Amino acid sequence: MRRIKLGTRIVDYPSDDLKQLEDSNHLLDNVEALKAELQSKGYIYIKGLHDRQEVLDARLAVLDYIRNLGEGKLKEGTAWEQGVLDERCGFGCVPYMEGRNDVTHSEAVSKVIEGHRPFEFFKKLFGEDAKTFDFKWLRGIHREAFSGAHVDNVYMSRGTDQLYTMWTPLGDVDIEMGTLAMCEGSNHLPGYSHFQDTYGNCDIENIGLEGTGWFTTDPFEISKQFGGQWKTTDFKAGDAIIFTMRTVHMSSVNSTEKLRISCDTRWQPASQSADPRYVGNEFHLKGAFGLAGIDEGRNKKNVPTIDILKKQWGFPLAMA
Ligand SMILES: O=C(O)CCC(=O)C(=O)O
């Protein structure tokens, strides 16, 4: 049994609070069953979707990029390939790599996150050619950092609803380094209908929300209120998890001295319209959300925050 920090809660793993993810590799030759699994669980976890060596090469390319940004980020006296962070390098020091094409579209990174393996996978899943947003959410998550519970629909709902996220850890990432946790069933269980009709339907950029866009940092505020089951696992380089825009997910806290590197990539059928904010070479986003939104809006007045909205929607603010 391991003690894990999942957002702001400390939980045992594995336990009823946080179970182990099961992979769906046995369904890879049965696309209808794979699609049914994606809808019933809200995700499919595929071991070895990517080539392991290519993922390890991509990780090194990202670390090399960070190393070349200057001193003070990776710990001196340790091999840079280890990805050990300088103790002082936390929020604001780890480079923000989301949508930064110089690193997200570098050869080694592109080869993994938009290489032929994911293209073929999604082509099979959609029954037609697949396309992916140009914007890539490449993340370096430092010690004590994590992502709060949210659905992706609040960030990217202006194109087709046949849009899926593929989360790819770049390297072997144990739960203690900050893995993605899924709330199984949250995309369709009846307990989520008000949550999905209010928060889940929000376009947070449109309403000018200030902050991360997360619903909460407390996993129990989701599972104990609306149902579903939190699950995660230790990921190996090559593994990926694919999930719907309505699946609630968050991450465990990175409690190690190593940088957790991962990328979320969005996929949809090629014939469908895409959210225009994430297509092209330059991205014009009004806000900074996710981890980058933590400090946004702290000093602003008259802007909606998630707490104000939750009150309006009739949700209790915090759980004991
Ligand atoms: O990597 C993370 O911590 C968050 C990723 C995420 O929210 C996503 O893939 O949609």
UniProtKB/TrEMBL annotation:
Entries under InterPro entries matching the protein: Phytyl_CoA_dOase-like (IPR008775)
Recorded superkingdom: Eukaryota
Pfam families: PhyH
PANTHER family hit by this protein: EXPRESSED PROTEIN, PHYTANOYL-COA HYDROXYLASE
Protein name per its UniProtKB record: Uncharacterized protein
Organism: Owenia fusiformis
